[in-house]
Here is the input.
Amino acid sequence: MIGKIIDNKYEIIEQLGSGGMAKVYRAKDLRLERSVAVKVLKEEYADNEQFVNKFMKEARADAMLAHHNIVGVYDVGEQEGLPYIVMEYIDGPTLKKYIEQNGPIEPSEAVDILYSVTLGVANAHKNGIIHRDIKPQNILLTSNRVPKVADFGIATAITSTTLTATEEALGSVHYVSPEQARGGFLDERSDLYSLGIMMYEMLTASLPYDGDTPVAVALMHVQNDVPSPRRVNKKLPEGVCQLVLNLTRRKTEDRYQNAVKLLSDLKLLKANIDAQIKPTYGKGASGGGKKTSPGGKPVSGPGRRLAIFIIAGVLLAAACAALIYIYEENSKVAVPPLEGATISEAKEILTAAELDYYVIQFKPSAEIEEGRIISQTPAANQTVKKGSAVGVVVSSGPRVIRVSAVIGFYEAEAVSKLTKAGFDVSEIKYENNSEYGNGQVFAQSPEGGTQVVEGTKVILYVSLGKDSTTVPNLLGKTIAEAKTLLSSAGLNLSGNITYEPSNSYSAGLIFKQTPTAYSEADKNTEVVLVVSLGNLITKTIDYKVKSADVKVEISLQDKDGNYISEYLSGSTENAGKKITVSVTRTPGTYSYVVTENGIQTDSGSVSF
Here is the structure.
């Protein structure tokens, strides 16, 4: 599990511990950037519907509670078939570990711890939840030593199976109430009994009962009165010890009847550790009832009477077990099919079958309408006990996801990426493209980054490579002819046409082109043309300088009426000097002007 990312939200960092039915990991919440604890059901219990149901029952119970002294539940889900619970991460030890390292704990500190734990338990009782498995292993201490109660609901799953000499069973049976050991009715007072055993352990760093098997320890709870902690440590305040005795009476009616009265007495002890606490039962003040040895075992009496007592207890337990078996066989029911039903419909169906339900998770689905059940655990028609809870996975409707950007990807890679992300990639169009190579995606619809419903069709446009053509030979053609040829080849005529003289091509005919004829070019490429102005002819213009010390300029007028200097003397000329200028032009008649020091002195025309 280390390094895995669960449901794209929680990265497993390290294993924190392992219990009877689950492993606990520290993980990083990738969305909120915080540490969380993730409890995952062990694989060997994944197919056991009773364990799965009770595991999810814990999640439901914890999720109902919000209290400073209860470990918070953030999320539930399933990863690779294993249910998990995401909880508040507590960065301190369990109370069990704290007792082992620091016990016995000073009475005042023990009272403070029990007071905080009782606040959490009282909150649970107020919400109709009985813990059933209170023990120091299920009390977590923060770095500031704030106690928090954890693991609501697990004890039922463990004690509903045969007790075996496992570490988990041994760890729980030391704290069970007599009625729980007998398999009797449990209420808030059962939790208070467990609190009393836990207080005894804090004060003495020991347990009132110990035995070779869980059954032996359970019988001690049923048959014996818990001794006063003062038998282990005579210096303990009398009021603190009386509080332990009040909590651990064998008969529920002789204990504190609720957590409110317990909190009241704890407040007295918090204010004054030597305060007197009244017994809840007359004989309890002196530790009455059946006498026990300091180790919690019965004082030896006549062997015959003891043997009869033990045999009677064993026979009673066997009879109870037989009755329970008969009862269970007569209280089973087939799980009705729920898939496709709404929550309200499922609730009505299950109520009629004397079953309960819980939501495992809300899961996106493109096929199942929002609010309807996708799947159920246990499956339809499986036989379970009446009163069992059926877990359902409910559709939250189509998942909204971001379209992956795949432009530049090759076709197979793009299809794989989009398909894995939940998109329909059934339509692909192939076109020529000059920017992307053959097989590359050059466009997509919807565009990458768009938020759409899962299962949306994404159309891909895949390049067939450049769409090239052969450039036609335009030399010797008129512009009109060139336009026709270029259009047929899928090419465009550039608007930048230039005109130049040519001795080889008549005026109006193309004598240069770019790209060159018969070369390969992308379609829609612009072809640049140069058109002939005709052959070049050379003529001379003769001029005799009229004034002395003047600069002479001879300018020829072009077809647009602009004068272009053909001759400009580099220095002043003398009067009477003859100047001959050679001019080369295409056929036609051109006019010229002669100036001396900028003043016109002559003009004329010349034909080419």
Remarks:
- Residues 125-299 form a domain with the Transferase(Phosphotransferase); domain 1 fold (CATH 1.10.510.10).
- The CA atoms of residues 197 and 262 lie 14 Å apart.
- DSSP finds 14 helices and 30 strands in the chain.
- Residues 154-171, 282-301 have pLDDT under 50 and may be disordered.
